[in-house]
Design the sequence.
């Protein structure tokens, strides 16, 4: 019946149930029940939808579309559609950020026909007592009009943080779900962000009991069928604070060629499909790293112990063995279930010191220099954008941020990045060539209007692009980034271009990675902390290593759901990590009122301009604090009057005026 029903929808767009019943010649009650169940199933799968008049419509991606809503600071809802760009959205109901909706497009505006799912379930805010009554103030200003209806049932203190669950979206009503703690406690501010995003922080007893059954000892004699690489010079290189080591590398020079081994922790050996640990990992999607803490995707017994490629310990791995010529071409590759023993746990700092000649290490020196040579070859061959990647690092002592510094990436960080990119590309290319089920990491080409906006903006500040701006190539963007390399403006230009890029997503079909300039790409190298990598391992082991081909269609369909869920989980993790970083920067600046800093204007808006300090902390100089009346030129992103103007890249000195820990904002005053 499903095939007949889908054919009917393809020829007749709008149908009520009686018309469907007639056209399919359904007469029996049994067939009618089957039909209603089938219609519900197709609705759940976003193949059709029903409107308020109970008319069914086929989601054909020509007239009707499905996407998420995002809300700008001014409260206006938009949909970011790859076909139309950013389009303003309207709906008869209140739209919230991350709402999943069905819409149609008319005159470059999105009319929302149905809200499929509200993805905001909880609201975190502060309880304020005024006279004899308690009032709820949401931390998110876009949700400020939601009311908590049952506050009088609880014994509450003034300035208490709570989490409320939404019970009525139309009437904007919530009920108190949990009390987090005092709004003045720094730890509670941090927890509030996690609670608001509904981040799972504890593992269930079921998951922990399942982990207890693992044998924490890895013995070569128990794995006779695995390729034994335990005698190879394979090492891990990670940050100083790293606890989970999911990748190890080794390089050997063979005449003019290089043999690279990338060994990745074989998490799939322990996390079986459908197990309690697997279900929890799917639910979490990714580990979340913030401040000096981590909320792991897997229990610590796995992430920090059994699956972590620790120095001197036997560990199970999937080992990619690649032979590369002096021009960066892959001559041969193989993937094996292996057993390894990391010879050294090296930090990026120590590896950089060895490469710079400030630290001598006879055992590793030769291989590290060969690794550097190979990485340079791979980087030269790969036609990819290199965004400025120095990032802020929090120096934390006794749970207090004592400094924010710029964490500069050195040679070894880039070496590991180059090797991981090659491994990801090699696996993705092989799996696509054989058309096996996969989860790919795709990065779409940026929308034309966003790139043109970036080009015009760069032109305003003095950088001229050659050629047709409607047909910009990757190399032209690379040249722009290179032009500002090692200048004070590098980070800002890099961020501007990054904002004009589309978001990378997980999908079950390969569509290429624009920024890396690769036709096929996946995430294979971090299965301890990312669920898509774990799925890629399962697919590789199932179809390449063990050659089991019985579930091709089923795995493909499952991977589509996994990719969608993984992209959503990644968005949540990025949002949480960013918000907590903003909070910590505000906490650091809270006692710096009146201090003076040098910075660069990183953005100009109608109500002022943003200034970025050398350590990446950013604050707003509001237009009301400037001397005189200023006009805003939106086209040129310029604030000006008869006496002077403010534009991007202007170097300024500012004084810290105000820090709002609740809104996580910093206000500067221009000197």
Sequence:
């Amino acid at each position: 019946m499903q095939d007949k029903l889908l054919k009917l929808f393809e020829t007749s767009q709008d149908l009520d149930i009686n018309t469907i019943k007639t056209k399919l010649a359904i007469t029996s009650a049994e067939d009618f029940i089957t039909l209603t169940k089938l219609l519900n199933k197709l609705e759940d799968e976003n193949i059709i939808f029903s409107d308020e008049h109970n008319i069914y419509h086929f989601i054909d991606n020509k007239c009707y579309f499905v996407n998420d809503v995002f809300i700008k600071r001014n409260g206006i809802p938009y949909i970011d559609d790859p076909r139309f760009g950013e389009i303003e959205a309207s709906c008869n109901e209140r739209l919230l950020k991350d709402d999943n909706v069905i819409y149609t497009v008319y005159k470059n505006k999105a009319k929302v026909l149905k809200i499929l799912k509200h993805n905001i379930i909880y609201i975190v805010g502060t309880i304020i007592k005024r006279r004899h009554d308690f009032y709820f103030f949401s931390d998110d200003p876009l949700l400020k009009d939601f009311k908590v209806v049952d506050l009088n049932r609880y014994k509450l203190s003034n300035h208490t943080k709570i989490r409320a669950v939404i019970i009525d979206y139309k009437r904007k009503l919530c009920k108190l779900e949990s009390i987090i703690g005092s709004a003045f406690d720094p730890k509670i501010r941090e927890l509030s962000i996690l609670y608001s995003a509904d981040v799972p922080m504890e593992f269930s007893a079921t998951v922990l009991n399942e982990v207890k059954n693992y044998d924490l000892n890895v013995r070569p004699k128990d794995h006779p069928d695995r390729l034994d690489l335990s005698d190879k010079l394979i090492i891990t290189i990670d940050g100083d604070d790293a606890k989970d080591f999911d990748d190890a590398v080794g390089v050997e020079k063979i005449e003019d060629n290089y043999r690279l081994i990338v060994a990745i922790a074989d998490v799939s050996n322990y996390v079986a499909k459908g197990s309690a640990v697997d279900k929890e990992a799917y639910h979490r999607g990714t580990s979340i790293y913030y401040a000096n803490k981590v909320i792991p995707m897997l229990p610590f017994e796995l992430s920090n112990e059994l699956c972590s490629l620790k120095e001197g310990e036997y560990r199970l791995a999937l080992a990619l063995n690649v032979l590369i010529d002096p021009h960066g071409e892959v001559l041969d590759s193989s993937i094996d279930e292996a057993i390894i023993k990391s010879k050294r746990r090296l930090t990026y700092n120590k590896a950089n010191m060895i490469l710079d000649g400030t630290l001598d290490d006879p055992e590793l020196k030769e291989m590290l220099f060969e690794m550097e040579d190979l990485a340079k070859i791979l980087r030269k061959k790969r036609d990819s954008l290199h965004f400025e990647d120095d990032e802020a690092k929090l120096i934390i002592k006794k749970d207090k941020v004592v400094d924010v510094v710029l964490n500069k990436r050195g040679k070894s960080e880039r070496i590991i990045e180059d090797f991981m990119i090659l491994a990801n590309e090699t696996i993705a290319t092989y799996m696509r060539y054989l058309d096996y089920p996969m989860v790919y990491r795709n990065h779409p080409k940026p929308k034309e209007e966003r790139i043109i906006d970036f080009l015009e903006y760069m032109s305003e500040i003095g950088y001229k692009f050659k050629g047709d701006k409607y047909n910009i190539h990757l190399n032209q963007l690379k040249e722009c980034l290179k032009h500002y390399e090692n200048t004070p403006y590098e980070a800002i230009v890099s961020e501007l271009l990054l904002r004009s890029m589309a978001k990378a997503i997980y999908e079950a079909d390969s569509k290429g990675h624009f920024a890396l300039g690769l036709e096929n790409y996946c995430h294979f190298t971090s299965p301890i902390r990312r669920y898509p990598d774990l799925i890629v391992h399962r697919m590789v082991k199932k179809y390449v290593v063990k050659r089991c081909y019985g579930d091709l269609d089923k795995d493909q369909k499952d991977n589509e759901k996994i990719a969608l869920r993984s992209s959503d989980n990644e968005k949540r993790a990025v949002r949480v990590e960013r918000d907590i970083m903003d909070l910590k920067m505000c906490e650091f600046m809270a006692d710096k009122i009146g201090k003076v800093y040098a910075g660069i204007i990183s953005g100009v808006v109608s109500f002022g301009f943003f200034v970025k300090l050398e350590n990446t902390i950013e604050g707003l100089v509001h237009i009301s604090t400037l001397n005189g009346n200023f006009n805003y030129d939106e086209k040129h992103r310029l604030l000006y009057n008869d006496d002077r103007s403010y534009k991007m890249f202007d170097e300024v000195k500012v004084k810290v005026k105000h820090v709002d820990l609740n809104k996580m904002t910093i206000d500067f005053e221009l000197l």
Notes: The first strand starts at residue 14 and ends at 15. Residues 207-445+503-581 form one domain. The chain has a mean pLDDT of 91.
